[in-house]
Amino acid sequence: MFRHISIALLLILSSGLFAQKRDSVKAPRIIREFTLSADYSEEINQPFDTVFSLFNRFKIADKYSPVNASLGNYGLPFYQISFFDRITDPDKFLYSSYYPLMYVPDKAAFMDTQVPFTELVWSFAGPRETSEQTFRVRHTQNVNRFFNFGLIYDIVYSLGQYDFQRADNKNFTFFSSYKGDKYKLYFAAGLNNIISFENGGVTDNNQLNQPRTRDVPVRLGALDKAKSTLKNRNLLLVQRYTFSSNPVSKSDSVPKKRSGFFGLSGTFSHIFMIESNKRTYSDAYPGSGFYDTAFISRSVTLNAKDFTFDSLYSRSIKNTVRFDFTTDETRKFRLGGGVGIRNEIFRYSQIIPTHDTTHLSDTAVWNRSNNALVGRLFINICNKFRWISTG
Prior knowledge:
By secondary structure, the protein is mainly β. It has one domain. Helices cover 7% and strands 49% of the residues. The longest helix has 22 residues, at 2-23.
């Protein structure tokens, strides 16, 4: 009996020692996800979790801000109840109510993985006549330890709680990154297509007590086929070249303090962004009485009926050249900053009505350009204190 107990104790002790030895070795990171800072000058790590924690929260909008006001179903325009989460950037005025669902340059995310990674997410909720469906596929892989590429395709399809309120959103992005010792490149392109059908709202608020939401009468019906469409196209290209006073050898995995003035290093960056947005509204039956006046009405000879159409368009091109410097990241005291210049070119257009009987509408165009000086300065003391100033 004593012999059996001794053998059991030896097995337990040996397994415990083996576990301690393995725990002391840091496991390699298989998948890393990161974004770029607001000025695109540095990487910001993002937590990456593939477990099924809160898997029922499939709405991306709720992850951006926990409480939102919407028109009744997912995929339609909405805004954040929290004032601090709202989108106030004037350049986003055409898609601020869809921003969390879209893939745009300032939200570009990149990955670095040691093994190919594919994720499929599908959800279906609600009765068939008012159901909401989402589908998302993401794939990324590394060609080598420097070069990564990936793509994401998102679909939101919702029939709506009320009549003629369908949402049909299809968003796609392709991203890639190359991270060498001195040269780094980040590329992201987005295609966002969002369609929201319009029902004009409820005719009488007293009808909202109906047990079935589809029985509540709305102002625009099947003849109108009214809908709003948003098409966004964007591209981001960031190139960075870094020179250091004492570069670390590729074969040396142990970080060492750089020589020179606090191990100073500098980075030249070129940031290119182009983005176009087109927002349209159409109604196939403008004479229904919903509009006081149909300013832009077009006649369709084949069906002998009129329809109304309106649109807004914006395009921006931004080029930034900057230089950033920083002291050795391994030191307790770290100083850094940067300065650059940005050129911006904007183009806006919209449809306007005319008095010409042959051409009932025309397009008005505005072109604008800006030059801006940008910069920042920061100080880090250990991991306890940091201040940063940008302008």
